[in-house]
Amino acid sequence: MAVSKDKVLVTCALTGVLAKREQCPHLPYSPVEIAEEAKRAYDAGAAQVHIHAREPDTGDQTWSADIYAQIKAEVNKRCPVIVNFSTGGFNMGVEGDAEKKQRLEYVWKAKPEVAALNMGSMNYAKYSEKRKAFVFDFVFPNPFSDLLMVLQAMREGGVKPELECFDAGHINNAVPLQAMGALKGPLQYSFILGVLGGVPATTDTLAHMARQTRAEDEWEVIGIGKQQWKLVGAALVLGGNVRVGLEDNFYLDPAGTKMAKSNGELVDKAVRMARDIGREPMTVAEAREALHLPWSW
Fold this sequence. Notes:
CATH architecture: Alpha-Beta Barrel
Largest sheet: 8 strands, parallel, barrel
Number of helices: 11
């Protein structure tokens, strides 16, 4: 029996890669710190955590299979939450399939239950209105050849793909992958709104993207920055799932004046919002049922 739409899957993105402790001192870097944040998120009502591995001392992004395995082991010691690893940026700064495949080793070695798959290339930037300049500005490449490479690593690890869509056109990129047999349904979409280069963070955009999915698919919203809480509210009303966490937004208020001291505080607010409109957070068991885990290829 399908999980009721009165239930909502709350995911927490614990750390990301772009932000550093100079911006938010509560960001976790080491496997133990990340696992402690996973436990706080789980205790607050999250059934899934999304994780980028970082170098424990510097906070720089890493693709180390050993560090990813340590993170998973530390999380599993503390709580039964679903572990979802990022594959974002695995192909940046390297040339040749051999190097790309080496970076993806953690996917099939550490074997998270779910891993994110970025569904298309795009400009990826942040603009400062105050400085009249870009804070960062780069091209995020995700050609179909690389999508197929990630899907193969997921297949080898028995990992379910989470389809991250920064633009409405990215949703349709699943069609040829399914036709080739590289991707199977039911699908799990994440709609990321608010990144410069992708779709704007509006409720109309979210509703349009949600309408592109099928009844058997799951979708969640990922609102970046101060627009997050408005989009969380819209997704809850539309029957979708939600993601919050320090990767996406540091603040408990839309004005950006009250910084969260942990991922658990952000999850706690999302859970309160869900319950205010009559939706209860899924348990881990219910989330695994909704996502058809463990995933079989």
